[in-house]
Amino acid sequence: MKIFITSLFVDDQAKALKFYTDVLGFIKKTDVPAGQFRWLTIVSPEGPADVELLLEPDENPAARAYQKALREQGIPATMFKVADIQKEYERLKNLGVVFTVPPTKMGLATGAIFDDTCGNLISIIQP
């Protein structure tokens, strides 16, 4: 058994796709109509192409409440591994990404947290 698709709730799929591809550098894998929304997945150019992140609409009240609660508590919705956190932090800051936590030593790793503009806090981490 292995991870195939994991979801990230977003408040606007088009805005999320733009941010996750144009700013973060992910690649759109699947984009098909699904009712009034889209089945919209991205993959990492640095990882296996069969591990997808679904940019899922937060239209379900439970999803929206979960997303809001995580954000209010400062908890990232997901975490991405980077090879050089300082370099990635500077690259993203130069692209206008707003960080709520700059690179900070956290036990065996260094992490930072930013706003994805789609309702989530996201962590980047360098082990």
TrEMBL record:
<keyword id="KW-0456">Lyase</keyword>
<dbReference type="InterPro" id="IPR029068">
    <property type="entry name" value="Glyas_Bleomycin-R_OHBP_Dase"/>
</dbReference>
<protein>
    <submittedName>
        <fullName>Lactoylglutathione lyase</fullName>
        <ecNumber>4.4.1.5</ecNumber>
    </submittedName>
</protein>
<dbReference type="InterPro" id="IPR004360">
    <property type="entry name" value="Glyas_Fos-R_dOase_dom"/>
</dbReference>
<dbReference type="GO" id="GO:0004462">
    <property type="term" value="F:lactoylglutathione lyase activity"/>
</dbReference>
<feature type="domain" description="VOC">
    <location>
        <begin position="2"/>
        <end position="127"/>
    </location>
</feature>
<dbReference type="InterPro" id="IPR037523">
    <property type="entry name" value="VOC_core"/>
</dbReference>
<dbReference type="Pfam" id="PF00903">
    <property type="entry name" value="Glyoxalase"/>
</dbReference>
